Amino acid sequence: MNKVIYEDDFDLSEINSLEELQNMAGNCARCGLRGGCSGVVFGEGNPEARLMLIGEGPGADEDRLGRPFVGKAGQLLDKILAAVGLERFKHVFIANVVKCRPPGNRAPRPNEAESCLPWLYRQIELISPRIIVLLGGTALQNLVEPDARITIMRGKWLVSKSGIKIMPTYHPAALLRDTSKKRPVWEDFQKVRDEYLKL
Ligand code: URA
C-alpha cells in the first residue's frame, strides 16, 4: 500500500458525513466523465460496514440506476457474498474507483481515476472499514501500486498504513468471462469472511 494518502489540493477533510460527501460528489465535474454519464454512482451499503468492496467504475446498468454493481457482474457479486454469509446492505459498503461511467465500459484513464480518488479516500475515512476487498486490476492499481498485477496479488493480504486489511481478488466480470476464476475468488472470499468473523 503506497498510495494510502492521496496528495491533492482538493481537500475533503472537513466533510464529516457520508451524506454530505454524496451530495457534494453529485455535483462533481473534476474530469470529463461527468459530461458523458447519467449521474454519479456514489456507492451503497451499510455506512458503518467493517468491510468495503471497491470495483472499477459504473457500467451501463449502474449508470442507469445510480447504484453500484447491479448488472450481471453485480448479481454474481451478491451471490458470492451470500455464499460466504454476507449481505450488501447489512455487512458491506460497495464503491468504485470512479463514480461516473467511462464510455463504452472502458477502464478509467489515470487522470479520471486521480480526479475521482479523493471522494473514495474520504468515503474510506468516514466508513472506516477494517477490511477492503479490491475487485480487479483497476482497483488494485489505483489503490495499491500502478504496476501491480491482479493475477499475482490476488488472494494475499496486504495492510494499509492505517491498518486496514486489504484483499485483492478478481473482478466478478472476469469470472463471467472465465469460469476458471470462480474457485480462486471463492477461496479469497472465504479468507475475507474468516477475517471478518474475527473482528
Ligand atoms: N463493475 C464495476 O467495477 N463497478 C460497478 O459498479 C459495476 C460493474
From TrEMBL:
Can you supply a Gene Ontology BP term from the record? Answer: DNA repair
InterPro entries attached here?
UDG_Type-4/5 (IPR051536), Ura-DNA_glyco_family4 (IPR005273), Uracil-DNA_glycosylase-like (IPR005122), Uracil-DNA_glycosylase-like_sf (IPR036895)
Q: What is its EC number?
A: 3.2.2.27
Write down the top EC class of this protein: hydrolase
Q: Reaction catalysed by this chain?
A: Hydrolyzes single-stranded DNA or mismatched double-stranded DNA and polynucleotides, releasing free uracil
For this chain, one GO molecular function annotation is: 4 iron, 4 sulfur cluster binding
Which SMART domains does this entry report, sorted A to Z?
Answer: UDG, UreE_C
The residue ranges of the Uracil-DNA glycosylase-like domain are: 42-190
Return the PANTHER family for the record: TYPE-4 URACIL-DNA GLYCOSYLASE, TYPE-5 URACIL-DNA GLYCOSYLASE
Spell out the protein name for this chain.
Type-4 uracil-DNA glycosylase
Species in which this protein is naturally found: Pelotomaculum isophthalicicum JI
Which lineage is the organism of this entry classified under, starting from the top rank?
Bacteria, Bacillati, Bacillota, Clostridia, Eubacteriales
